Amino acid sequence: xxxxxxxxxxxxxxxxxxxxxxxxxxxxxxxxxxxxxxxxxxxxxxxxxxxxxxxxxxxxxxxxxxxxxxxxxxxxxxxxxxxxxxxxxxxxxxxxxxxxxxxxxxxxxxxxxxxxxxxxxxxxxxxxxxxxxxxxxxxxxxxxxxxxxxxxxxxxxxxxxxxxxxxxxxxxxxxxxxxxxxxxxxxxxxxxxxxxxxxxxxxxxxxxxxxxxxxxxxxxxxxxxxxxxxxxxxxxxxxxxxxxxxxxxxxxxxxxxxxxxxxxxxxxxxxxxxxxxxxxxxxxxxxxxxxxxxxxxxxxxxxxxxxxxxxxxxxxxxxxxxxxxxxxxxxxxxxxxxxxxxxxxxxxxxxxxxxxxxxxxxxxxxxxxxxxxxxxxxxxxxxxxxxxxxxxxxxxxxxxxxxxxxxxxxxxxxxxxxxxxxxxxxxxxxxxxxxxxxxxxxxxxxxxxxxxxxxxxxxxxxxxxxxxxxxxxxxxxxxxxxxxxxxxxxxxxxxxxxxxxxxxxxxxxxxxxxxxxxxxxxxxxxxxxxxxxxxxxxxxxxxxxxxxxxxxxxxxxxxxxxxxxxxxxxxxxxxxxxx
Length: 579
Known about the structure:
- By secondary structure, the chain is an alpha/beta fold.
- It has three domains: 2-169, 3-Layer(aba) Sandwich (Rossmann fold); 175-282, Methionyl-tRNA Fmet Formyltransferase, Chain A, domain 2, CATH 3.10.25; 302-484 and 494-574, 2-enoyl-CoA Hydratase, Chain A, domain 1, CATH 3.90.226.10.
- It is built from 20 helices and 25 strands.
- The protein starts with a strand and ends in a 5-residue tail after the last helix.
- The model is unreliable at 567-575 (pLDDT under 50).
Protein backbone atom coordinates (compact mmCIF):
# COMPACT_ATOMS: atom_id res chain seq x y z
CA UNK A 1 0.00 0.00 0.00
CA UNK A 2 0.86 3.67 -0.11
CA UNK A 3 1.32 4.64 3.54
CA UNK A 4 2.00 8.13 4.87
CA UNK A 5 3.66 8.45 8.27
CA UNK A 6 2.75 11.67 10.10
CA UNK A 7 5.00 12.40 13.08
CA UNK A 8 6.08 15.31 15.23
CA UNK A 9 9.67 14.15 14.71
CA UNK A 10 11.37 11.51 12.59
CA UNK A 11 12.41 9.76 15.78
CA UNK A 12 13.57 6.22 16.47
CA UNK A 13 10.08 4.67 16.27
CA UNK A 14 9.15 6.62 13.13
CA UNK A 15 12.39 5.53 11.46
CA UNK A 16 11.89 1.91 12.48
CA UNK A 17 8.33 1.83 11.15
CA UNK A 18 9.45 3.50 7.92
CA UNK A 19 12.15 0.87 7.45
CA UNK A 20 10.06 -2.17 8.41
CA UNK A 21 7.00 -1.13 6.39
CA UNK A 22 9.27 -0.50 3.40
CA UNK A 23 10.80 -3.96 3.88
CA UNK A 24 7.30 -5.42 3.47
CA UNK A 25 6.90 -3.76 0.08
CA UNK A 26 4.77 -0.78 1.09
CA UNK A 27 5.53 2.61 -0.46
CA UNK A 28 6.12 4.86 2.54
CA UNK A 29 6.52 8.62 2.83
CA UNK A 30 6.91 10.82 5.92
CA UNK A 31 5.70 14.31 6.81
CA UNK A 32 6.43 16.21 10.02
CA UNK A 33 3.43 17.59 11.89
CA UNK A 34 5.75 19.84 13.92
CA UNK A 35 5.71 22.39 11.09
CA UNK A 36 1.95 22.88 11.15
CA UNK A 37 -1.15 21.46 9.53
CA UNK A 38 -0.54 22.81 6.03
CA UNK A 39 2.47 20.56 5.26
CA UNK A 40 0.41 17.57 6.42
CA UNK A 41 -2.47 18.51 4.13
CA UNK A 42 -0.05 19.12 1.25
CA UNK A 43 1.61 15.73 1.75
CA UNK A 44 -1.79 14.00 1.78
CA UNK A 45 -2.78 15.73 -1.48
CA UNK A 46 0.53 14.90 -3.14
CA UNK A 47 1.02 11.33 -1.91
CA UNK A 48 -2.67 10.30 -1.89
CA UNK A 49 -2.07 7.57 0.70
CA UNK A 50 -4.28 4.57 1.18
CA UNK A 51 -3.50 4.68 4.89
CA UNK A 52 -2.09 7.26 7.30
CA UNK A 53 -0.16 6.13 10.38
CA UNK A 54 0.91 8.52 13.15
CA UNK A 55 3.72 6.86 15.17
CA UNK A 56 4.45 9.86 17.43
CA UNK A 57 2.32 12.99 17.62
CA UNK A 58 2.44 15.88 20.06
CA UNK A 59 -0.45 17.65 18.30
CA UNK A 60 -3.75 16.49 16.83
CA UNK A 61 -4.11 15.60 13.17
CA UNK A 62 -6.07 18.14 11.09
CA UNK A 63 -9.76 17.27 11.35
CA UNK A 64 -10.28 17.29 7.58
CA UNK A 65 -7.48 14.73 7.21
CA UNK A 66 -8.79 12.16 9.70
CA UNK A 67 -12.37 12.62 8.49
CA UNK A 68 -11.44 11.92 4.87
CA UNK A 69 -8.76 9.24 5.41
CA UNK A 70 -8.26 6.27 7.69
CA UNK A 71 -5.67 7.48 10.21
CA UNK A 72 -4.12 5.13 12.76
CA UNK A 73 -2.70 6.68 15.93
CA UNK A 74 0.02 4.83 17.87
CA UNK A 75 -0.68 5.42 21.57
CA UNK A 76 1.94 4.23 24.12
CA UNK A 77 -0.64 2.90 26.53
CA UNK A 78 -2.96 -0.11 26.80
CA UNK A 79 -6.56 0.00 25.50
CA UNK A 80 -8.58 2.47 27.52
CA UNK A 81 -5.57 4.56 28.55
CA UNK A 82 -5.90 8.16 27.43
CA UNK A 83 -3.76 11.25 27.77
CA UNK A 84 -0.45 12.77 26.67
CA UNK A 85 1.90 11.27 29.30
CA UNK A 86 1.16 7.58 29.24
CA UNK A 87 4.69 6.23 29.76
CA UNK A 88 5.34 8.77 32.51
CA UNK A 89 2.38 7.46 34.49
CA UNK A 90 3.41 3.84 33.88
CA UNK A 91 6.88 4.47 35.32
CA UNK A 92 5.60 6.61 38.21
CA UNK A 93 3.07 3.91 39.10
CA UNK A 94 5.74 1.19 38.88
CA UNK A 95 3.61 -0.76 36.41
CA UNK A 96 4.99 -4.25 35.77
CA UNK A 97 3.34 -4.34 32.33
CA UNK A 98 2.05 -1.68 29.97
CA UNK A 99 0.98 -1.68 26.34
CA UNK A 100 0.73 0.01 22.96
CA UNK A 101 -2.61 0.60 21.24
CA UNK A 102 -3.16 1.42 17.58
CA UNK A 103 -6.46 3.24 17.30
CA UNK A 104 -8.38 5.17 14.70
CA UNK A 105 -8.19 8.96 14.89
CA UNK A 106 -11.31 10.83 15.96
CA UNK A 107 -12.18 14.08 17.73
CA UNK A 108 -11.60 12.85 21.30
CA UNK A 109 -7.95 12.11 22.14
CA UNK A 110 -7.10 8.38 22.26
CA UNK A 111 -10.80 7.43 22.17
CA UNK A 112 -10.97 5.89 18.70
CA UNK A 113 -11.70 2.29 17.79
CA UNK A 114 -8.84 -0.15 18.38
CA UNK A 115 -7.12 -1.79 15.39
CA UNK A 116 -4.46 -3.60 17.39
CA UNK A 117 -2.89 -3.68 20.85
CA UNK A 118 0.27 -5.26 22.21
CA UNK A 119 1.50 -5.56 25.82
CA UNK A 120 5.10 -5.12 26.95
CA UNK A 121 7.01 -5.45 30.25
CA UNK A 122 8.29 -2.36 32.10
CA UNK A 123 11.83 -2.93 33.44
CA UNK A 124 13.58 -0.45 35.75
CA UNK A 125 15.14 1.64 32.98
CA UNK A 126 14.82 5.23 31.78
CA UNK A 127 11.74 6.31 29.86
CA UNK A 128 13.67 6.91 26.62
CA UNK A 129 15.29 3.46 26.84
CA UNK A 130 11.87 1.89 27.49
CA UNK A 131 10.39 3.81 24.57
CA UNK A 132 13.10 2.79 22.10
CA UNK A 133 13.09 -0.86 23.15
CA UNK A 134 10.17 -2.65 24.83
CA UNK A 135 7.61 -0.04 23.77
CA UNK A 136 9.03 0.17 20.25
CA UNK A 137 8.95 -3.62 19.82
CA UNK A 138 5.30 -3.65 20.91
CA UNK A 139 4.44 -0.67 18.70
CA UNK A 140 5.93 -2.26 15.59
CA UNK A 141 4.09 -5.53 16.22
CA UNK A 142 0.81 -3.65 16.77
CA UNK A 143 1.22 -1.39 13.72
CA UNK A 144 2.11 -4.27 11.40
CA UNK A 145 -0.92 -6.16 12.70
CA UNK A 146 -3.17 -3.13 12.14
CA UNK A 147 -1.80 -2.54 8.63
CA UNK A 148 -2.33 -6.19 7.76
CA UNK A 149 -5.89 -6.06 9.08
CA UNK A 150 -6.64 -2.86 7.17
CA UNK A 151 -5.20 -4.27 3.95
CA UNK A 152 -7.30 -7.43 4.32
CA UNK A 153 -10.50 -5.39 4.33
CA UNK A 154 -12.51 -7.73 6.54
CA UNK A 155 -11.44 -6.58 10.00
CA UNK A 156 -13.59 -4.13 11.90
CA UNK A 157 -11.84 -2.12 14.63
CA UNK A 158 -13.20 -2.60 18.15
CA UNK A 159 -14.84 0.47 19.72
CA UNK A 160 -13.44 1.23 23.15
CA UNK A 161 -17.00 1.45 24.45
CA UNK A 162 -17.44 -2.29 23.86
CA UNK A 163 -16.45 -5.06 26.24
CA UNK A 164 -14.47 -4.78 29.46
CA UNK A 165 -12.19 -1.90 28.40
CA UNK A 166 -12.39 0.90 30.94
CA UNK A 167 -11.39 4.39 29.85
CA UNK A 168 -8.86 6.10 32.16
CA UNK A 169 -7.83 9.67 31.46
CA UNK A 170 -4.38 10.62 32.73
CA UNK A 171 -3.44 14.30 32.70
CA UNK A 172 -0.19 15.75 31.47
CA UNK A 173 2.56 14.73 33.90
CA UNK A 174 3.77 18.08 35.22
CA UNK A 175 6.99 19.07 36.92
CA UNK A 176 5.25 19.34 40.28
CA UNK A 177 4.89 15.55 40.30
CA UNK A 178 8.53 15.07 39.29
CA UNK A 179 10.06 17.39 41.86
CA UNK A 180 12.56 15.68 44.16
CA UNK A 181 12.51 16.32 47.90
CA UNK A 182 16.14 15.53 48.65
CA UNK A 183 15.54 15.58 52.41
CA UNK A 184 12.60 13.16 52.35
CA UNK A 185 12.78 11.01 49.18
CA UNK A 186 14.74 7.78 49.43
CA UNK A 187 17.07 6.62 46.69
CA UNK A 188 14.54 4.41 44.91
CA UNK A 189 12.01 7.25 44.83
CA UNK A 190 14.61 9.63 43.42
CA UNK A 191 15.65 7.08 40.79
CA UNK A 192 12.03 6.56 39.75
CA UNK A 193 11.55 10.29 39.21
CA UNK A 194 14.81 10.63 37.29
CA UNK A 195 14.13 7.60 35.10
CA UNK A 196 10.66 8.84 34.30
CA UNK A 197 12.07 11.99 32.69
CA UNK A 198 15.57 10.95 31.61
CA UNK A 199 15.39 12.29 28.06
CA UNK A 200 12.41 14.64 28.10
CA UNK A 201 11.57 16.78 29.89
CA UNK A 202 14.08 16.13 32.67
CA UNK A 203 13.45 16.89 36.35
CA UNK A 204 13.52 20.58 37.21
CA UNK A 205 15.78 21.27 40.20
CA UNK A 206 18.32 23.75 41.53
CA UNK A 207 22.09 23.32 41.65
CA UNK A 208 24.64 25.95 42.68
CA UNK A 209 21.88 28.55 42.71
CA UNK A 210 20.72 27.90 39.14
CA UNK A 211 17.63 26.12 37.83
CA UNK A 212 18.52 23.08 35.76
CA UNK A 213 16.81 19.97 34.47
CA UNK A 214 18.32 16.68 35.64
CA UNK A 215 18.62 13.95 32.99
CA UNK A 216 19.22 10.31 33.87
CA UNK A 217 19.69 8.58 37.19
CA UNK A 218 21.74 5.63 38.45
CA UNK A 219 22.28 4.26 41.99
CA UNK A 220 25.48 4.62 44.02
CA UNK A 221 26.29 2.08 46.72
CA UNK A 222 29.13 3.71 48.73
CA UNK A 223 29.20 7.50 48.62
CA UNK A 224 27.14 9.26 51.27
CA UNK A 225 26.51 12.83 52.41
CA UNK A 226 23.97 15.42 53.44
CA UNK A 227 20.84 15.02 51.26
CA UNK A 228 20.99 17.15 48.13
CA UNK A 229 24.72 17.88 48.24
CA UNK A 230 27.09 17.09 45.40
CA UNK A 231 29.55 14.39 46.47
CA UNK A 232 31.79 13.60 43.52
CA UNK A 233 32.15 13.47 39.76
CA UNK A 234 32.99 10.70 37.33
CA UNK A 235 33.11 10.63 33.52
CA UNK A 236 31.23 13.93 33.25
CA UNK A 237 28.47 12.89 35.67
CA UNK A 238 27.87 14.14 39.21
CA UNK A 239 26.91 12.14 42.30
CA UNK A 240 24.29 13.65 44.59
CA UNK A 241 23.33 12.50 48.07
CA UNK A 242 19.84 11.26 48.88
CA UNK A 243 18.23 10.64 52.26
CA UNK A 244 19.57 7.08 52.41
CA UNK A 245 22.22 6.89 49.71
CA UNK A 246 23.21 8.66 46.50
CA UNK A 247 22.52 8.79 42.76
CA UNK A 248 24.59 9.56 39.67
CA UNK A 249 23.21 12.16 37.24
CA UNK A 250 25.00 12.05 33.86
CA UNK A 251 23.50 15.12 32.17
CA UNK A 252 21.99 18.51 32.96
CA UNK A 253 20.05 20.99 30.87
CA UNK A 254 20.10 24.66 31.92
CA UNK A 255 16.69 26.32 31.97
CA UNK A 256 16.30 28.77 29.12
CA UNK A 257 16.16 31.75 31.46
CA UNK A 258 19.23 30.60 33.43
CA UNK A 259 21.64 32.81 31.52
CA UNK A 260 23.44 29.85 29.95
CA UNK A 261 23.72 30.42 26.16
CA UNK A 262 23.56 26.65 25.63
CA UNK A 263 20.22 25.58 27.17
CA UNK A 264 20.35 21.97 26.03
CA UNK A 265 21.50 18.64 27.48
CA UNK A 266 25.16 17.94 27.95
CA UNK A 267 27.46 16.29 30.52
CA UNK A 268 26.62 17.49 34.02
CA UNK A 269 30.13 18.61 34.96
CA UNK A 270 30.41 20.88 31.91
CA UNK A 271 27.09 22.58 32.70
CA UNK A 272 28.07 23.19 36.34
CA UNK A 273 31.47 24.47 35.26
CA UNK A 274 29.76 27.06 33.06
CA UNK A 275 27.84 28.23 36.15
CA UNK A 276 30.53 28.11 38.79
CA UNK A 277 33.91 28.08 37.13
CA UNK A 278 36.46 26.50 39.43
CA UNK A 279 33.94 25.52 42.11
CA UNK A 280 33.08 22.30 40.28
CA UNK A 281 36.73 21.32 40.14
CA UNK A 282 36.68 21.05 43.96
CA UNK A 283 34.46 17.98 43.72
CA UNK A 284 36.55 14.83 44.20
CA UNK A 285 36.70 12.34 41.36
CA UNK A 286 35.26 8.98 42.39
CA UNK A 287 37.41 6.76 40.20
CA UNK A 288 36.47 3.11 39.71
CA UNK A 289 38.35 0.26 38.03
CA UNK A 290 37.45 -0.67 34.48
CA UNK A 291 36.54 -4.16 35.68
CA UNK A 292 34.06 -3.60 38.51
CA UNK A 293 33.28 -6.33 41.05
CA UNK A 294 29.88 -7.90 40.30
CA UNK A 295 28.44 -6.76 43.63
CA UNK A 296 29.05 -3.04 42.98
CA UNK A 297 25.96 -0.89 42.41
CA UNK A 298 27.37 2.24 40.88
CA UNK A 299 27.48 4.01 37.55
CA UNK A 300 30.19 4.29 34.95
CA UNK A 301 29.81 4.61 31.19
CA UNK A 302 32.59 2.12 30.29
CA UNK A 303 33.08 -1.33 31.81
CA UNK A 304 35.06 -4.47 31.05
CA UNK A 305 34.41 -8.07 32.05
CA UNK A 306 35.77 -11.39 30.89
CA UNK A 307 34.35 -14.89 30.59
CA UNK A 308 36.99 -17.40 29.57
CA UNK A 309 38.38 -16.51 26.15
CA UNK A 310 35.86 -13.72 25.61
CA UNK A 311 36.25 -10.11 26.73
CA UNK A 312 33.28 -7.74 26.88
CA UNK A 313 33.94 -4.00 26.63
CA UNK A 314 30.61 -2.37 27.40
CA UNK A 315 29.91 1.32 26.90
CA UNK A 316 26.73 3.33 27.20
CA UNK A 317 26.64 7.05 26.48
CA UNK A 318 23.43 9.12 26.84
CA UNK A 319 21.72 9.46 23.49
CA UNK A 320 24.47 7.42 21.85
CA UNK A 321 26.59 10.55 21.35
CA UNK A 322 30.35 10.32 21.95
CA UNK A 323 32.27 13.45 22.92
CA UNK A 324 36.01 13.94 22.52
CA UNK A 325 36.52 12.89 26.14
CA UNK A 326 34.27 9.83 25.82
CA UNK A 327 36.05 8.69 22.64
CA UNK A 328 39.46 9.07 24.27
CA UNK A 329 38.43 7.21 27.41
CA UNK A 330 36.89 4.41 25.35
CA UNK A 331 40.11 4.13 23.33
CA UNK A 332 42.14 3.79 26.55
CA UNK A 333 39.73 1.08 27.72
CA UNK A 334 39.96 -0.66 24.33
CA UNK A 335 43.74 -0.66 24.46
CA UNK A 336 43.55 -2.09 27.98
CA UNK A 337 41.18 -4.81 26.76
CA UNK A 338 43.74 -5.78 24.11
CA UNK A 339 46.23 -6.61 26.86
CA UNK A 340 43.88 -9.26 28.26
CA UNK A 341 44.31 -12.90 27.14
CA UNK A 342 41.18 -13.27 25.01
CA UNK A 343 40.49 -14.59 21.53
CA UNK A 344 37.19 -12.72 21.05
CA UNK A 345 36.45 -9.14 22.13
CA UNK A 346 32.83 -7.93 22.15
CA UNK A 347 32.08 -4.19 21.96
CA UNK A 348 28.73 -2.64 22.85
CA UNK A 349 26.28 -1.80 25.59
CA UNK A 350 23.77 -4.08 27.24
CA UNK A 351 20.77 -2.04 26.06
CA UNK A 352 19.73 0.85 23.85
CA UNK A 353 22.02 2.86 21.53
CA UNK A 354 25.28 1.45 20.25
CA UNK A 355 26.62 4.83 19.08
CA UNK A 356 25.50 7.83 17.06
CA UNK A 357 28.97 9.27 16.47
CA UNK A 358 30.29 12.69 17.47
CA UNK A 359 28.57 14.64 20.27
CA UNK A 360 26.72 17.52 18.60
CA UNK A 361 25.48 19.00 21.89
CA UNK A 362 28.99 19.30 23.33
CA UNK A 363 30.18 20.73 20.02
CA UNK A 364 27.38 23.32 19.92
CA UNK A 365 28.20 24.46 23.47
CA UNK A 366 31.94 24.75 22.83
CA UNK A 367 33.62 28.19 22.60
CA UNK A 368 34.75 27.22 19.08
CA UNK A 369 32.40 24.59 17.58
CA UNK A 370 34.62 24.12 14.53
CA UNK A 371 37.66 23.28 16.67
CA UNK A 372 35.60 20.98 18.91
CA UNK A 373 34.11 19.25 15.85
CA UNK A 374 37.64 18.64 14.59
CA UNK A 375 38.92 17.34 17.93
CA UNK A 376 35.86 15.09 18.39
CA UNK A 377 36.15 13.64 14.89
CA UNK A 378 39.86 12.89 15.28
CA UNK A 379 39.20 11.19 18.62
CA UNK A 380 36.50 9.10 16.97
CA UNK A 381 38.85 8.25 14.10
CA UNK A 382 41.56 7.17 16.57
CA UNK A 383 39.11 4.75 18.18
CA UNK A 384 37.86 3.31 14.90
CA UNK A 385 41.40 2.94 13.57
CA UNK A 386 42.41 0.99 16.69
CA UNK A 387 39.58 -1.48 16.03
CA UNK A 388 40.49 -1.80 12.35
CA UNK A 389 44.14 -2.47 13.19
CA UNK A 390 43.38 -5.22 15.74
CA UNK A 391 44.66 -8.43 14.15
CA UNK A 392 45.36 -10.76 17.08
CA UNK A 393 41.75 -11.64 17.92
CA UNK A 394 38.25 -11.38 16.50
CA UNK A 395 36.30 -8.25 17.37
CA UNK A 396 32.49 -8.33 17.50
CA UNK A 397 30.28 -5.24 17.57
CA UNK A 398 27.09 -6.14 19.46
CA UNK A 399 24.31 -3.67 18.66
CA UNK A 400 21.61 -3.81 21.31
CA UNK A 401 20.09 -0.70 19.74
CA UNK A 402 20.45 1.89 17.03
CA UNK A 403 23.65 3.07 15.39
CA UNK A 404 24.14 6.06 13.11
CA UNK A 405 26.80 8.01 11.25
CA UNK A 406 30.22 7.52 12.85
CA UNK A 407 28.69 5.13 15.37
CA UNK A 408 27.57 2.87 12.54
CA UNK A 409 31.09 3.00 11.10
CA UNK A 410 32.54 2.10 14.51
CA UNK A 411 30.42 -1.04 14.37
CA UNK A 412 31.53 -1.81 10.79
CA UNK A 413 35.18 -1.61 11.87
CA UNK A 414 34.67 -4.86 13.77
CA UNK A 415 35.09 -8.30 12.17
CA UNK A 416 31.50 -9.25 12.87
CA UNK A 417 28.40 -7.17 13.56
CA UNK A 418 25.67 -8.76 15.66
CA UNK A 419 22.47 -6.77 15.78
CA UNK A 420 19.26 -7.06 17.77
CA UNK A 421 16.34 -7.41 15.37
CA UNK A 422 14.71 -4.21 16.66
CA UNK A 423 17.68 -1.93 15.91
CA UNK A 424 17.83 0.64 13.11
CA UNK A 425 21.00 1.67 11.29
CA UNK A 426 21.67 5.03 9.63
CA UNK A 427 25.02 4.44 7.86
CA UNK A 428 25.32 7.95 6.46
CA UNK A 429 26.19 11.55 7.37
CA UNK A 430 24.41 13.57 4.74
CA UNK A 431 21.50 14.81 6.79
CA UNK A 432 23.90 16.74 9.01
CA UNK A 433 25.62 18.24 5.97
CA UNK A 434 28.74 16.12 6.39
CA UNK A 435 30.90 14.05 4.10
CA UNK A 436 31.81 11.66 6.88
CA UNK A 437 34.93 10.06 8.29
CA UNK A 438 35.59 7.11 10.65
CA UNK A 439 37.07 5.22 7.65
CA UNK A 440 33.67 4.83 6.00
CA UNK A 441 35.28 4.90 2.56
CA UNK A 442 37.07 1.69 3.57
CA UNK A 443 34.63 -0.15 5.85
CA UNK A 444 31.36 0.45 4.03
CA UNK A 445 32.33 -0.61 0.48
CA UNK A 446 34.29 -3.64 1.72
CA UNK A 447 31.02 -4.93 3.18
CA UNK A 448 28.40 -3.88 0.64
CA UNK A 449 30.41 -2.91 -2.47
CA UNK A 450 31.09 0.57 -3.90
CA UNK A 451 27.70 1.02 -5.60
CA UNK A 452 25.69 0.08 -2.53
CA UNK A 453 27.94 2.28 -0.39
CA UNK A 454 27.17 5.24 -2.63
CA UNK A 455 23.45 4.50 -2.46
CA UNK A 456 23.39 4.22 1.34
CA UNK A 457 25.34 7.43 1.91
CA UNK A 458 23.54 9.32 -0.88
CA UNK A 459 19.94 8.37 -0.14
CA UNK A 460 20.56 8.71 3.62
CA UNK A 461 17.61 6.54 4.68
CA UNK A 462 17.18 4.42 7.83
CA UNK A 463 17.87 0.71 7.39
CA UNK A 464 16.14 -2.00 9.41
CA UNK A 465 18.18 -4.73 11.03
CA UNK A 466 16.77 -7.26 8.57
CA UNK A 467 17.71 -5.15 5.55
CA UNK A 468 21.14 -4.49 7.06
CA UNK A 469 21.68 -8.25 7.23
CA UNK A 470 20.59 -8.71 3.61
CA UNK A 471 22.95 -5.93 2.50
CA UNK A 472 25.92 -7.32 4.43
CA UNK A 473 26.10 -4.55 7.03
CA UNK A 474 25.17 -7.08 9.73
CA UNK A 475 26.52 -10.61 10.05
CA UNK A 476 24.10 -12.00 12.61
CA UNK A 477 20.59 -11.01 13.69
CA UNK A 478 20.00 -11.59 17.39
CA UNK A 479 16.34 -12.40 18.03
CA UNK A 480 16.05 -11.46 21.67
CA UNK A 481 14.07 -9.12 23.86
CA UNK A 482 15.99 -6.06 25.06
CA UNK A 483 16.42 -7.65 28.47
CA UNK A 484 17.78 -10.92 27.05
CA UNK A 485 20.16 -9.45 24.47
CA UNK A 486 23.27 -9.52 26.68
CA UNK A 487 22.77 -13.13 27.73
CA UNK A 488 22.26 -14.19 24.12
CA UNK A 489 25.39 -12.33 23.00
CA UNK A 490 27.39 -14.01 25.78
CA UNK A 491 26.18 -17.42 24.58
CA UNK A 492 27.02 -16.66 20.94
CA UNK A 493 30.43 -15.19 21.83
CA UNK A 494 31.34 -18.28 23.87
CA UNK A 495 30.43 -20.39 20.87
CA UNK A 496 32.57 -18.25 18.55
CA UNK A 497 35.56 -18.51 20.89
CA UNK A 498 35.21 -22.30 20.89
CA UNK A 499 35.07 -22.90 17.12
CA UNK A 500 37.90 -25.25 16.04
CA UNK A 501 39.15 -23.00 13.25
CA UNK A 502 39.30 -19.75 15.22
CA UNK A 503 43.08 -19.51 14.93
CA UNK A 504 42.79 -19.91 11.16
CA UNK A 505 40.17 -17.14 11.05
CA UNK A 506 42.39 -14.78 13.04
CA UNK A 507 45.36 -15.53 10.79
CA UNK A 508 43.23 -14.95 7.67
CA UNK A 509 41.99 -11.68 9.13
CA UNK A 510 45.54 -10.43 9.69
CA UNK A 511 46.52 -11.42 6.15
CA UNK A 512 43.49 -9.64 4.66
CA UNK A 513 44.26 -6.47 6.63
CA UNK A 514 47.88 -6.54 5.39
CA UNK A 515 46.72 -6.98 1.80
CA UNK A 516 44.26 -4.11 2.11
CA UNK A 517 46.99 -1.92 3.58
CA UNK A 518 49.21 -2.61 0.57
CA UNK A 519 46.40 -1.69 -1.82
CA UNK A 520 45.52 1.53 -0.03
CA UNK A 521 46.75 2.39 3.46
CA UNK A 522 44.22 3.23 6.14
CA UNK A 523 46.06 6.51 6.60
CA UNK A 524 45.19 7.44 3.03
CA UNK A 525 41.48 6.85 3.66
CA UNK A 526 41.66 8.87 6.87
CA UNK A 527 43.46 11.81 5.37
CA UNK A 528 41.14 12.02 2.34
CA UNK A 529 38.07 11.95 4.60
CA UNK A 530 39.49 14.48 7.04
CA UNK A 531 40.40 16.88 4.24
CA UNK A 532 36.73 16.96 3.24
CA UNK A 533 35.52 17.28 6.82
CA UNK A 534 38.00 20.04 7.68
CA UNK A 535 36.70 22.11 4.78
CA UNK A 536 33.14 21.80 6.18
CA UNK A 537 33.95 22.35 9.85
CA UNK A 538 35.93 25.54 9.25
CA UNK A 539 33.56 27.06 6.68
CA UNK A 540 31.15 29.29 8.66
CA UNK A 541 28.69 29.16 5.77
CA UNK A 542 28.59 25.36 5.53
CA UNK A 543 25.08 23.94 6.13
CA UNK A 544 26.49 21.70 8.88
CA UNK A 545 26.56 24.55 11.38
CA UNK A 546 22.92 25.54 10.91
CA UNK A 547 21.77 21.90 10.77
CA UNK A 548 23.70 21.07 13.95
CA UNK A 549 22.30 24.05 15.81
CA UNK A 550 18.73 23.26 14.74
CA UNK A 551 19.14 19.62 15.76
CA UNK A 552 20.59 20.42 19.17
CA UNK A 553 18.17 23.25 19.94
CA UNK A 554 15.19 21.31 18.51
CA UNK A 555 14.14 24.04 16.11
CA UNK A 556 12.65 23.38 12.64
CA UNK A 557 15.21 22.93 9.89
CA UNK A 558 14.59 22.32 6.23
CA UNK A 559 11.64 20.53 4.70
CA UNK A 560 8.68 19.03 6.53
CA UNK A 561 9.40 15.93 4.43
CA UNK A 562 12.44 14.38 6.16
CA UNK A 563 13.07 11.80 3.44
CA UNK A 564 13.73 14.44 0.80
CA UNK A 565 17.25 15.66 0.07
CA UNK A 566 18.53 17.84 2.94
CA UNK A 567 19.96 21.29 2.47
CA UNK A 568 23.51 19.98 2.71
CA UNK A 569 23.95 19.85 -1.04
CA UNK A 570 23.49 17.50 -3.95
CA UNK A 571 24.41 13.86 -3.86
CA UNK A 572 27.42 14.64 -5.99
CA UNK A 573 28.67 17.09 -3.37
CA UNK A 574 28.92 14.33 -0.80
CA UNK A 575 29.92 11.40 -2.95
CA UNK A 576 33.30 10.03 -1.96
CA UNK A 577 36.12 7.99 -3.37
CA UNK A 578 35.28 4.46 -2.21
CA UNK A 579 37.79 2.59 -4.30
